[in-house]
Write a structure and sequence with these properties.
The chain has helices spanning 6-9, 26-38, 44-52, 54-64, 72-81, 84-99; strands at 107-114, 123-130. It contains six helices and two strands.
Length: 138
């Protein structure tokens, strides 16, 4: 199947109970979460505020066909329905599709963070990737 956008990769995500999507599709909420995270937003509350902004909601409608951003509470309810293993599988399919379009080099910068805010023995690791000319959204 040829998929052109983020949402299409998450149409097959499994849920813990049946949801007909009459108001908002699960894949739309996942798309909003991914885009908000890509913008550096840290939690659902920040992502909701970003997505419900008039300019951003118009962008979501125009580029992704997301007609209406659900309210914060409804977003949380829909996110709770998602089976994590299924989400992971769909996410990996999307990332593989993006990576197959890369013709250059991917620079990955790994970091280790120690913070006094947390227990001093607790170490957090993360990696950031620098991708040139990669269409993450289409």
């Amino acid at each position: 199947m040829n998929k052109n956008g983020i949402s299409e990769y998450f149409e097959e995500v499994e849920l813990t109970k049946e949801y007909d999507g009459y108001f908002c599709k699960i894949e739309s909420v996942i798309t909003i979460m991914i885009l908000g995270s890509m913008c550096g937003l840290k939690n659902v509350s920040q992502i909701y505020l970003w997505a419900s902004n008039k300019k951003n909601s118009e962008f979501l409608k125009e580029k992704f066909g997301i007609e209406k951003v659900p309210c914060y509470y409804w977003m949380l309810c829909l996110l709770k329905l998602i089976k994590p293993e299924s989400l992971n599988q769909c996410f990996m399919k999307w990332i593989k599709a993006v990576m197959s379009q890369i013709s250059g080099t991917v620079s990955i910068d790994g970091k280790t963070i120690r913070s006094t805010k947390f227990n001093a023995t607790r170490i957090r690791k993360f990696a950031s990737a620098d991708l040139d000319n990669v269409p993450l959204i289409s």
